[in-house]
Amino acid sequence: MIENLIRFCSLWMLCGAENEASSARRQVMPARETEAIILKTFPLGEADRLVSFFGRDSGRLRGVAAGARRIKNRYGSTLEVLSHVQLRYVERETRDLVRIQECELLESFHEAQSNYSLSTGLAMISEIVERTLPEQEVAEPMFRLLLLAAREVERRGSWELPLAYFAFWAVKLGGYLPPLERCAVCGNAFGDEPGFHFGQAAGLSCARCGKPGMRPLGKRGRELARYFLASRLDEIELPEEIRKALAELRETTLDWIEHHLERRLQTREFLETP
Ligand SMILES: [Zn+2]
Predict the structure, then answer these.
(1) Which residues of the chain have pLDDT under 70?
(2) Is 142 left (phi over 0), alpha (psi -120 to 50) or beta?
(3) Ligand 1 centre and the CA of 85: distance in Å?
(4) N or C end of the chain, less CB within 10 A?
């Protein structure tokens, strides 16, 4: 019994959940407001949710939505993955977690959120933001990219192009996009030949410098990358025959993201290819 209580208390502390009695004694901080995109939520205790969100004016933050697990709660569907919301929250002096006061839905991606295959694409996009962006760092271009990607998964009813475009631009905005036309080892130009990649390398290798297990990024995939650099996602229409190049480019950029993070993306294996 006592053991359980201790475990419960330490879990409570770990999660940074609120201790109402002591917080009431602390100075009240002014409420802040930001446009935000919900990245992920976790159950917290019996009634609350821990919410990870990316605010246009706040950067990535985590907060507690009190009562969000109750059947009747004021959050409704606002806390779904990648929901676009207006969020009001209070910072607290001594904790990393903010307290969410209000969350109003600006834009819902209901089709994508309720479709299993599409939701695997949303989850991957959300994980990339979660893992690559430091907390509390405002990143306006990334915010716009994320919103555009979520809208396009919803509008197209497919995650393939939005995810590939998003992942590619996440690498570009992160500042670790390697040269696409030359071998990172020997410097030779690829020309019409593919470059090769895997999760243990930051760039592309030629066939001679490549290692076993590397996968190709062909000429069309590299052309597609240059096209992404010059185009807005909502203006791109790709012919069906470019799907293979699109998948190659997606896999390449996911490898670069994993190499940059020095860890695997958990959602990658759950991506449901249509
Ligand atoms: Zn080489």
Answers:
(1) 1-28, 94, 273-274
(2) alpha
(3) 47
(4) N
CATH superfamily assigned to domain 2-108: Nucleic acid-binding proteins (2.40.50.140)
Distance 244 CA to ligand 1 centre (A): 24
pLDDT in tens, 197-211: 998 889 999 999 999
pLDDT score for 28: 67
Residue 182 CA to ligand 1 centre (angstroms): 8
Tell me, in angstroms, the distance from the centre of ligand 1 to residue 202's CA: 14
Distance 195 CA to ligand 1 centre (A): 9
Instruction: Please state, as a whole number, how many other Cβ atoms lie within 10 Å of the Cβ of residue 207.
Output: 14
Give the Å distance between the CA of 214 and the centre of ligand 1.
13
Range(s) for CATH 1.20.1440.120 in the chain? 114-270
Superfamily name with CATH number, domain 114-270: Recombination protein O, C-terminal domain (1.20.1440.120)
CA of 189 to the centre of ligand 1 (A): 8
Nearest-angstrom CA–CA distance, 63 and 100: 6
Q: Where in the chain is the domain with CATH 2.40.50.140?
A: 2-108
User: Alpha helices, DSSP H only, in the chain?
Assistant: 2-14, 20-25, 110-114, 116-132, 140-156, 160-174, 219-230, 243-261
What share of the chain in percent tops pLDDT 70?
88
Give me the residues paired with residue 102 across strands.
88
| 33 CA → ligand 1 middle, Å | 51
